[in-house]
Backbone:
């Protein structure tokens, strides 16, 4: 179990990343705010606790890798990279602007510290598998983490990847499913019939855990358990809330991709403990 | 005619030669070990042989992850299962981030797909990839040229696509003939009457057509364009400037492939007349490979006749031009 000081620190960091998301989407006037909010705690746990990384050496071959398969949630990933010092925080509001290093969806060659180009849904687990296989071939002990959405599980390629990683016994691979239960067009249950999720991963030879994706202790414990696996890749189904942290975004799926009015911006920042 | 230079074996031999020298070489199979008879590779380097099963999109995206982590993956399967089924993975996850994944597409063209029929005969692969920024596209003429292309492209920046066939290809060049990426190759002597641009498994037919033309008093230049991208625009322009008319011969749809590429050079750099032989924007069918090429406009006789007609038109045009000047 993670101690409470460590958890409190991560929770404060997650609030910071959420403020960064609101701020950059507001200033840029574009982006996906609520999908970033649901995955903010997982991304925080990754970049501020779990990942073995060195921001001064983004190309370090032995670093852990992180693949945001639900690439539209990149505002929170950019915030994490900036707060870890891969680039300046002042770059964040350039999101989605011409000549920015922060593309609308993640593009690894442009953004320092970014491990994978993603955005088109369904592909990130496969890319992560390639990275995990390379670790095995090169006898490196780095681990690979990926996050998919739950709507994203509608992509057939996800299940090609699930079959492959199970077959290859990639114990160095951990995939989070950000189970916020919404996709662009409505709830996941209504739109795509993807449930049950856990049994599917298990059927492909994965160890699968269900957690509260906003409970930092549960996130860290699930990662610890995944690290102990010897033969099976790990799937962590993280029950999350789309828009988590900003009450008026919760339950209103229009925030999948929507910009803030000045009043909404002020209200969101206040709720997240910001100065404005 | 019976001198076989198997392109699938050529790929496998090139891959083995590379793997003997370098430990970054990986063979990614989508159940394609038997397709290219790569059992030897699988036995010698089991840790560098990744079998993903019949799952091409996964094969391509896994290769992207391998390449992003310092490996050089070679992914070989049917040309259309790569360039069509996994097209988006080839573009967004490999070409866009400039990753060094090598794709080898089998059963390309009518000749490569032959008796399998349209589902396994791919006449659009070059057109699809030519429209994607960042690809190097290679169309070697025979088995040993495939091996040489595999060796030559090992360190090429970004993704590479090598177009191969069914394994029943004729020899065109002596073994060991180097493969130069990005340069045209003039085969035989240079004639100034007409240029014959080609690549791949129709090359011998074009060489034979040039010999027939020679007997009829028409001097042709046979130009092998084995690198379709990046295209040797200067080399092609120079030939076009000398000949003034050209025939392109390709086992591919005439839209998007070599004929289109030559037409672009003509339009932008070197005015000339052009006739495009290949699939005339239609599908093929099952059949013996040589019968198919004959039936779909790529017979030696049709290449020669098309060239003669172009040369006659050119001479007529010149006469008219001279009359008008006088």
Residues:
């Amino acid at each position: 179990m993670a101690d409470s000081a460590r958890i409190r620190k991560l929770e404060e960091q997650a609030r910071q990343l959420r403020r960064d998301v609101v701020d950059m989407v507001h200033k840029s006037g574009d982006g996906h705010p609520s999908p970033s909010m649901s995955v903010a705690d997982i991304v925080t746990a990754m970049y501020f606790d779990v990942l073995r990384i060195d921001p001064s050496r983004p190309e370090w071959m032995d670093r852990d890798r992180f693949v945001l398969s639900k690439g539209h949630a990149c505002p929170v990933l950019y915030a994490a990279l900036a707060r870890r010092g891969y680039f300046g925080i002042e770059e964040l509001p350039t999101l989605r602007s011409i000549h920015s290093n922060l593309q609308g969806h993640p593009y690894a060659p442009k953004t320092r510290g970014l491990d994978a180009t993603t955005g088109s849904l369904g592909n990130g687990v496969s890319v992560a598998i390639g990275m995990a296989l390379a670790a095995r071939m090169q006898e490196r002990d780095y681990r690979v983490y990926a996050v998919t959405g739950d709507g994203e599980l509608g992509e057939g390629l996800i299940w090609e990847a699930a079959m492959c990683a199970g077959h290859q016994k990639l114990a160095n691979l951990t995939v989070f499913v950000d189970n916020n239960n919404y996709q662009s067009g409505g709830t996941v249950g209504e739109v795509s019939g993807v449930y049950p999720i856990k049994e599917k991963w298990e059927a492909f030879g994965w160890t699968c855990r269900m957690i509260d994706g906003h409970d930092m202790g549960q996130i860290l414990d699930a990662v610890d358990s995944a690290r102990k696996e010897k033969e099976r890749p790990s799937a962590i189904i993280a029950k999350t809330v789309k828009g988590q942290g900003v009450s008026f975004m919760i339950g209103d799926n229009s925030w999948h991709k929507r910009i803030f009015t000045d009043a909404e911006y002020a209200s969101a920042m206040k709720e997240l403990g910001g100065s404005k | 005619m019976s001198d076989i230079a198997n392109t699938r074996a050529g790929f496998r031999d090139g891959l083995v030669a590379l793997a003997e020298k370098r430990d970054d070489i990986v063979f990614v199979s989508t159940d394609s070990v038997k397709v290219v008879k790569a059992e030897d590779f699988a036995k010698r380097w089991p840790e560098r042989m990744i079998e993903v099963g019949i799952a091409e999109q996964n094969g391509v995206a896994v290769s992207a992850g391998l390449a992003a982590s310092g490996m050089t993956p070679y992914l070989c399967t049917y040309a259309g299962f790569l360039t069509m089924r996994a097209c988006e993975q080839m573009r967004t996850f490999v070409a866009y981030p400039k990753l060094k994944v090598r794709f080898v597409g089998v059963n390309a063209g009518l000749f490569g797909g032959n008796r399998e029929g349209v589902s396994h005969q791919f006449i659009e692969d070059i057109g699809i990839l030519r429209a994607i920024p960042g690809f190097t596209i290679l169309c070697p003429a025979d088995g040993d040229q495939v091996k040489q292309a595999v060796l030559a492209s090992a360190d090429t920046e970004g993704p590479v696509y090598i177009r191969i066939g069914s394994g029943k290809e004729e020899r065109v060049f002596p073994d060991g003939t180097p493969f130069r990426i990005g340069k045209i190759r003039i085969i035989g002597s240079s004639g100034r009457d007409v240029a014959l641009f080609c690549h791949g498994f129709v090359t011998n037919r074009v060489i034979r057509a040039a010999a027939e033309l020679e007997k009829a008093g028409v001097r042709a230049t046979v130009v092998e364009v084995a690198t379709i991208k990046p295209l040797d625009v200067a080399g092609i322009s120079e030939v076009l400037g000398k000949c003034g008319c050209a025939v392109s011969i390709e086992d591919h749809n005439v839209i998007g492939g070599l004929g289109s590429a030559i037409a672009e050079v003509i339009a932008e750099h070197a005015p000339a007349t052009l006739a495009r032989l290949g699939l005339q924007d239609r599908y093929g069918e099952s059949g013996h490979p040589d019968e198919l090429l004959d039936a779909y406009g790529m017979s030696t006789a049709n290449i020669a006749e098309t060239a003669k007609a172009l040369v006659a038109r050119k001479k007529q045009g010149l006469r008219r031009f001279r009359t008008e000047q006088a």
In short: Chain A touches chain B through 32 residues (CB under 8 Å).
